[in-house]
Amino acid sequence: MTESSDQKQLLHLVFGGELTSLKDVHFKDLNDLDIVGIFPDYASALAAWKGKAQATVDNAHMRYFIVHMHRLLTPGEKVAGQD
To answer: Name one Pfam family in it (predicted).
Structure first.
């Protein structure tokens, strides 16, 4: 499946899991990480993150994160007007 677009892909990963404490990012069980998905832009990743974060608001140790994968893939590259 290919997407035909001239716009640069800015991939973002959304994932989360239960932390051992509220003081740092150390997951209780790496086998239980929730990989929400990879998204083509920050806006769609943020929407997915919000949905998961709001659904788990009753568990203070549950945290979701957005990883800017495009920054890892091209670390020195600056994208004007993008996150």
So the answer is: DUF4170
Residue 64: CB partners within 8 Å, gap ≥ 6? 14, 15, 16, 34, 36, 49, 52, 53, 56
Domain range for 33:
12-71
DSSP letter assigned to residue 33 = -
Q: What φ, ψ does residue 2 adopt, rounded to 5°?
A: -120, 150
Q: Tally the domains of the chain.
A: 1
The CATH code of the domain that includes 41 is: 3.30.70.2400
The pLDDT profile of the chain, 83 residues, written as one tens digit per residue, is 455 556 778 999 999 999 999 999 999 999 999 999 999 999 999 999 999 999 999 999 999 999 999 888 887 766 655 55
